[in-house]
Each structure stands twice: as structure tokens, then as C-alpha cells.
């Protein structure tokens, strides 16, 4: 069964029936999409005006009026949920604007999205902050937060529409979720929209026990659950909006809330009156120097307060464990977080936990332990637990230091050595392009060998020529140095910053996935936009980012081209933004095996590899992913015929594929696309259209030259190309898909025989 991340609820046991869409209906559109593979280029747009960054607290006060205290209570109880709710509300509002919802419905959607999780304030801390997986009783307590949201809002909200939206956010589109009687279009449209947006936001943000998914993987998951959990038409609309705007629309919503909302309108939804409490700024107890020291330590440093709550988790801890600090801070410490084991490799429970023992007894401890990171790797560590004693003799908490005691040199240390030896750019003191090219090849190879994620940032100062023309080259140099300093300041151990040329930089991020890289790029983007440039009369300059993560089948060249495409998209969409592309390493295809790959056994056989793939996205989106594959692999389009396309791809630039004595191999990819509609069985046993679609792809790979078929490594190279193709298309072998395929091939053959006979 398939589960949506964090939903905890499996899809219905009745698997969807696959039927083929009428070829006449979509064949012409598919042919036009395939023809667009030959068309590239990006338009020029003006940079939109955006407000200064506003806090969630300010935005909530403007949108909710006198009910802003409800959101403040949620912030105090669980800041992560409040931040999630704010992101969902801003995204839903922008979506409503694109759909041209009237002002009243848009306001109700915004308020419901902001407060749909207000029931979390009634969830006990020991459940809400538990760092390990919830048991069935605890999961039931969390599920009750939906009911508590309704109980809280009923006592203050005068809008029956808002209450109905909040009540039905958890309903599944096909009606299969217990306790939610409505299904399909009977569910309020705003509730269906919030369900999609909150699922997407949850998937693209880190949690303690799982990393964030890349945007493309999250979109694919939405398509996979379309027709069951989500409204398929709304999923299609939402993904199109995300693909087009890449999150920039939220700034426009923030501007509207801050500048255009009428306070009397916001107050009109509530039947009580109270003065809003002034917001109090919270500051970290760490000084700037202490924070910088902690962030740049290679060892893991963890602070736990007297109540057992984690209050500090430095970059060293992120590197060692694979758990992002933002997802773990505020949670309760438990040895199960790191699966701590003692010197005899026995699991450590709460009663033997050195951290909890130090808090209770005030005694230090030094032990050799084993920790397991979220990435599935274990490491021997020297642990040093230091109790923190206050002036009155009261224990305030404990500090846990973990030093990697592994005998092998870590991947990060090897990459750091490369970075330290790099030839520096004279202006910015970062690596130059030649050193980046050299290090990048080693970097990609090492991470793929160890199956560790790494990411690439490519950034470019916006409208830099006008800076030089208006303020002079000295001002331009200072702007370049400002960006370089921010990039270096955001780096962790093992990362590499390089000046790629002019005002363009690239950053290699070790042990970093797509979502984490995009988050770091966003922090740099915001910091630069707020940094005053003295030689520009105090004005600031902005930067655009392209972000990508290594994925199966990648080479340094394909990874770099994908990051460059993301940067061009950011420029094309208005600049001053971060765009990420790629599915990432967390979606790696299955290894080659007899059940999934069909590899030729005879040297004279034309086709080396054949496979039938399925991807949960519609054909239109699949073709867009194919365009990216063609661009990043510098492939040539040999032929397009209806729903079939023929490509030529060469490994001549992909140094990881070849040895010194090897010569390039040119492969021919024969692809055929078929769009399928999914049907589900109703309670009465009848089949009905679920509205969801998927794309089926027939893939054949063969060498272009006959002599290459006799080479011993040609089969491995063909499979590498197939792995890359699957990564770009987010596809899996048909044998692994959950939908039944009995009779599917027959139906497809009959549907396409008339069309094929005309060719």
C-alpha cells in the first residue's frame, strides 16, 4: 500500500483500474509537446517589487485581526506548526488569486488555512515533542487535534463557511477516510485546496526521522495520490502553479496582507473583542561568537535543557546524524533519536542514557558509543556529557559532545582537503573555475559511490551590468565580494565555493539534499537583499539561485547543466528567487536485475536495454521532464512521430563513464508515451473515473554504431543512461507499480493499432 508522507493512512485496498485515454483526444497535444523539445530560450521580465521580509506574527495580526491571539498561542505552543500554517495560508491565497476566487471566499480560505491546525495547542507536550515514532494511542491523540480545532473555533468564529472548511480539511476525495462523510466535490473546495498545500509543505520540509523531499518528488507524490486522497483537477492546477511561479507568489500575498487588508473586515469574522498582546522578540542565548564557533565545529554539539528539550543542534550534529537542526530543536531528547549503543553494541534505553543521567546526577561521563544517523550509517563516537550547573547549584541541562572516532577518513574530510588546496580567485579568495571543474568530478564520483546526497548551487547577481554602468566597477567588485562572503559564511565542513566567472558563483554542498540546499540558498538570498552596499549609495543588490541535488545516473556535466537550467528559470521568472530542479538521490531507481531490466545476451542484438516505465504525472508534465533530460545530456532529437520520439545521447563529455583508453559511445533512445486514466471500483462494484492519470513509457536503448555492440562495458553504460532517464522522469518499472495490469497491454494495443497503421 502507498502512504502519503506523514499521513499515516494507507490508500484504500481497492487498487485503481488502468484504462487508456482516447488517443484522438490527446495525440495532437502530445505531438505538439514533443515538437517543443526543439524550442529553448527564456524571456526577459522586469523584477517585481516586493516588500521587506515581514514576520509571521505581523502577517497573522493583519489577516486575523482580533483573533491574532489564536495564532500567537499556536506559535507559543509549537512554532513549527505555526510556521507550517503560515506557509499554507500564503500559498493558498496566491492559488485563490490565480483561480479568480471572489474576495469573500479568498478571505475565508486564508483564515481557515491559518487556523486549521489551532487544535495542536491542546496536544500534550510529551506527544507533540516526542522525537521518536508515535504509538497508536499517541497517534490517536494527534488525530484529535482536528476535532479540537473545531471546538476552539466554534467558540469564537462567526463564519459557518470557515468552520466547514476546517472540519473537512482531513477528508479524502474518494470518501475512504473514516469519520469524514463528505467526498468528491461535496467537500468544500477550500478544504480540498488546503489538504493539497499542507501535504506539499509537509513533504518539502524536514522532519526528525526523514529528510525533506525535493519539489519534484513531492509533486509526483501528489499525482500518485490524486483521485484517492486529493482532488485530481486541483492537484493538476496546483502543480502547474508551483512549476510556473516557484513560490514567488507568496511575496505578493504578504504585500496584500500588510498594505491592503481592512482591519474591520478581518475583525468581522469574530464575535469577541480583546486587545492584541504586543509581540516580544525572542533572542538566542548564544552570542554571535559562540554561535559561529558551534556552527563551524566538526564535532557534534547538542544542548539539552533541564526538561530534556533539545535547544541546540549544530552543523556537526547535522553532518554526523543526517538530522537537520531546525527539525529537532524543541523536541525532547531520547537515546532512540540516534539509536545509541554502548561499548558492547547493546541499545541504550532511557535509564542508561548518559545525557539524562548527567541532568539527574550532575556527573560528567566519557564513553565510547555507537550512533546511527537517519541516513542509515553507523559511526563510533567518543561521547562527553557535561552537566550545566547554575549559580544556585541547580542543574540547568547538559551538553553532549560527539567526536567521530571512525578510523577511516570521512568523505567530508576528503572534500575539505580538496577545498583547502584549491587555487583561489584573487578578488574573492574562493576557488576559481579551473579548481571547481577538477573538484566537481571527484566530488560527484565520491558521493555516488557512497550513496550520500550532495547538492550544487549556481547563483548570479541580478542586473549586474547596470551596477557597473551606474556606480562603477569598484562598486561591482564590492557587490561580488559581499556575495562571496555570504556564500562562504553559509558553508559547512567539506563544502566548496568557487567563482565560476564574472558575477556567477557555484557552491558544492556535501551531504546535503535538494531541500536543505534550497533553504540555505534562500537564507543567502534574503541576507544579500537586505545588505546595504556603501559604494551603491546604501542600496542593495539581489541574487538568483539555481539548486539541484545529485541523482542516479548523473555525471558532473548533467548536474551542472541542471543547476544552470534552474538558474535560467529563476532569471526568467523575475530574478531574486531560488529555483530547484531534480528528483534527488532519495528517489534512486532499483539496481539492475533480471526482473526490471531486459539486457541483450547476444552481441549482435540491436536493443541492449528495454523497459516499460510508469510515472504518476500526466503526459504533459512527463514531456517537460524529458525536455530537461535532453538539455542536460546535450542529446539530439533524431525523430518525432506522434507519441514516439527518438534521441541520440553520447557519453563523450561524461568523464565518469570512461577510462583513458575508452572511446565515447553514442546511444539511441526509442521512447513511446501513453497516457492512462485510473478508474476505481465503487461500493456497488461499478467502475468510475477517478480523474487521476499517469504516463506509461516504453524505453529501448541501443548503440548507434554496430561496432560498439561488441564492447564489454556497453551494457553497463546503457543501464546508466536508463537510470538517469528514470530519475528525470520520476519513473519506476511497471512491475513495481501498485496498479493491476491484467489486460492493460491488450487494451493499449487495440487503442493504438488504428493510429499506428496510418504511419
What is this structure's SSE topology?
Elements: E1 17-20, H1 23-35, H2 56-64, H3 68-77, H4 79-98, H5 103-115, H6 125-128, H7 136-143, H8 145-154, H9 160-167, H10 189-203, H11 215-224, H12 232-245, H13 249-260, H14 263-267, H15 288-296, E2 300-305, E3 310-313, H16 315-321, H17 325-328, H18 354-361, E4 365-372, E5 378-389, E6 395-404, H19 411-420, H20 433-450, E7 454-461, H21 464-471, H22 473-489, E8 496-501, E9 504-510, H23 514-529, E10 543-549, H24 556-572, E11 578-581, E12 598-599, E13 609-615, H25 619-632, E14 636-641, E15 644-650, E16 666-681, E17 687-703, H26 714-729, E18 732-733, H27 744-757
Keywords:
Alpha-Beta Plaits, 759 residues, 5-stranded antiparallel β-sheet, disordered C terminus, globular, single chain, 4 domains, 8-stranded antiparallel β-sheet, Beta-Lactamase, alpha+beta
How would you summarize this macromolecular structure in one to three sentences?
This protein has about 750 residues and is an alpha+beta fold. Helices cover about 40% and strands about 20% of the residues.
Q: Care to describe what's here?
A:
The strands form three sheets. Strands 1, 12, 13, 14, 15, 16, 17 and 18 form an eight-stranded antiparallel beta sheet that branches. A five-stranded antiparallel beta sheet has the order 3-2-6-5-4. Helix 4 runs antiparallel to helix 5 and helix 4 packs across helix 10. By secondary structure, it is of the alpha+beta class. A hairpin with a 4-residue loop joins strand 2 and strand 3. The N terminus and C terminus are likely disordered. The protein has four domains: about 220 residues, Hypothetical protein af1432 (Orthogonal Bundle); about 120 residues, PAS domain (Beta-Lactamase); about 180 residues, 2-Layer Sandwich (Alpha-Beta Plaits); about 160 residues, 2-Layer Sandwich (TATA-Binding Protein). It is about 40% helix and about 20% strand.
Amino acid at each position: 500500500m502507498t502512504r502519503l508522507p506523514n499521513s499515516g493512512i494507507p490508500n484504500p485496498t481497492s487498487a485503481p483500474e488502468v484504462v487508456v485515454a482516447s488517443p484522438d483526444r490527446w495525440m495532437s497535444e502530445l505531438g505538439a509537446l514533443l515538437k517543443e523539445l526543439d524550442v529553448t530560450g527564456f524571456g526577459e521580465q522586469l523584477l517585481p517589487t516586493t516588500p521587506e521580509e515581514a514576520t509571521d506574527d505581523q502577517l497573522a495580526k493583519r489577516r486575523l485581526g482580533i483573533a491574532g491571539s489564536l495564532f500567537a498561542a499556536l506559535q507559543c505552543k509549537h512554532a513549527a506548526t505555526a510556521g507550517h500554517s503560515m506557509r499554507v495560508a500564503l500559498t493558498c491565497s496566491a492559488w485563490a488569486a490565480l483561480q479568480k476566487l471572489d474576495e469573500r471566499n479568498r478571505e475565508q480560505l486564508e483564515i481557515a488555512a491559518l487556523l486549521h491546525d489551532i487544535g495542536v495547542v491542546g496536544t500534550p507536550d510529551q506527544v507533540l515533542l516526542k522525537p521518536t515514532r508515535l504509538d497508536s494511542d499517541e497517534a490517536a491523540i494527534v488525530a484529535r487535534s482536528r476535532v479540537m480545532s473545531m471546538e476552539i473555533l466554534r467558540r469564537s468564529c462567526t463564519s459557518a463557511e470557515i468552520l466547514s472548511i476546517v472540519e473537512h480539511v482531513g477528508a479524502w476525495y474518494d470518501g475512504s477516510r473514516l469519520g469524514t462523510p463528505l467526498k468528491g466535490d461535496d467537500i468544500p473546495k477550500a478544504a480540498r485546496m488546503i489538504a493539497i498545500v499542507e501535504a506539499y509543505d509537509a513533504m518539502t520540509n524536514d522532519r526528525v526521522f526523514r529528510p525533506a523531499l525535493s519539489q519534484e518528488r513531492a509533486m509526483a507524490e501528489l499525482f500518485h495520490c490524486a483521485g484517492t486522497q486529493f482532488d485530481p483537477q486541483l492537484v493538476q492546477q496546483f502543480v502547474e502553479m508551483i512549476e510556473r511561479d516557484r513560490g514567488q507568489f507568496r511575496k505578493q500575498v504578504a504585500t496584500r496582507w500588510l498594505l491592503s487588508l481592512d482591519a474591520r473586515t478581518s475583525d468581522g469574522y469574530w464575535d469577541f473583542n480583546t486587545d492584541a498582546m504586543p509581540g516580544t522578540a525572542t533572542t538566542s542565548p548564544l552570542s554571535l561568537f559562540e554561535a559561529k564557533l558551534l556552527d563551524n565545529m566538526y564535532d557534534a554539539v547538542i544542548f539539552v535543557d533541564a526538561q530534556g528539550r533539545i535547544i541546540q543542534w549544530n552543523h556537526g550534529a547535522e553532518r554526523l546524524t543526517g538530522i537537520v537542526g531546525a527539525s529537532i530543536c524543541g523536541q525532547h531528547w531520547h537515546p532512540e533519536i540516534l539509536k545509541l549503543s554502548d561499548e558492547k553494541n547493546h541499545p541504550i534505553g532511557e535509564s542508561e542514557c548518559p545525557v539524562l543521567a548527567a541532568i539527574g546526577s550532575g556527573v560528567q561521563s566519557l564513553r565510547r558509543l555507537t550512533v546511527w544517523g537517519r541516513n542509515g550509517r553507523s559511526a563510533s563516537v567518543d561521547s562527553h556529557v557535561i552537566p550545566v550547573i547554575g549559580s544556585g547549584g541547580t542543574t540547568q541541562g547538559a551538553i553532549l559532545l560527539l567526536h567521530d572516532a571512525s578510523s577511516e577518513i570521512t568523505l567530508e574530510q576528503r572534500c575539505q582537503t580538496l577545498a583547502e588546496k584549491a587555487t583561489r580567485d584573487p578578488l574573492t579568495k574562493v576557488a576559481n573555475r579551473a579548481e571547481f571543474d577538477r573538484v566537481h568530478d571527484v566530488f560527484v564520483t565520491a558521493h555516488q559511490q557512497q550513496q550520500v546526497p550532495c547538492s550544487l548551487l549556481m547563483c548570479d547577481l541580478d542586473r549586474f551590468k547596470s551596477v557597473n554602468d551606474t556606480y562603477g566597477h569598484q562598486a561591482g567588485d564590492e557587490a561580488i565580494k559581499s556575495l562571496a562572503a555570504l556564500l562562504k559564511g553559509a558553508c559547512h565542513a567539506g563544502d566548496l565555493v568557487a567563482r565560476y566567472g564574472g558575477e556567477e558563483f557555484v557552491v558544492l554542498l556535501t551531504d546535503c539534499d535538494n531541500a536543505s540546499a534550497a533553504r540555505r540558498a534562500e537564507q543567502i538570498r534574503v541576507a544579500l537583499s537586505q545588505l546595504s552596499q556603501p559604494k551603491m549609495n546604501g542600496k542593495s543588490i539581489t541574487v538568483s539561485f539555481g539548486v539541484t541535488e545529485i541523482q542516479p545516473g548523473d555525471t558532473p556535466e548533467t548536474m551542472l547543466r541542471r543547476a544552470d537550467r534552474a538558474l535560467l528559470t529563476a532569471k526568467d521568472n523575475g530574478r531574486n528567487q531560488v529555483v530547484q530542479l531534480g528528483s534527488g538521490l532519495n528517489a534512486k531507481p532499483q539496481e539492475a536485475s533480471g526482473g526490471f531490466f531486459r539486457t541483450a545476451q547476444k552481441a549482435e542484438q540491436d536493443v541492449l536495454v528495454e523497459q516499460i516505465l510508469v510515472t504518476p504525472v500526466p503526459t504533459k508534465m512527463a514531456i517537460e521532464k524529458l525536455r530537461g533530460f535532453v538539455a542536460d545530456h546535450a542529446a539530439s532529437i533524431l525523430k518525432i512521430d506522434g507519441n514516439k520520439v527518438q534521441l541520440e545521447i553520447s557519453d563523450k563529455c561524461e568523464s565518469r563513464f570512461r577510462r583513458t583508453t575508452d572511446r565515447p559511445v553514442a546511444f539511441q533512445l526509442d521512447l513511446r508515451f501513453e497516457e492512462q486514466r485510473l478508474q476505481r471500483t465503487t461500493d456497488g462494484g461499478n467502475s468510475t473515473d477517478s480523474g487521476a492519470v499517469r504516463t506509461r513509457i516504453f524505453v529501448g536503448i541501443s548503440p548507434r554504431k554496430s561496432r560498439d555492440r561488441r564492447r564489454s562495458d556497453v551494457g553497463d553504460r546503457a543501464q546508466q543512461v536508463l537510470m538517469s532517464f528514470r530519475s528525470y522522469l520520476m519513473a519506476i518499472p511497471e512491475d513495481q507499480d501498485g496498479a493491476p495490469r491484467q489486460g492493460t497491454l491488450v487494451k493499449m494495443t487495440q487503442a493504438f493499432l488504428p493510429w499506428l497503421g496510418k504511419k
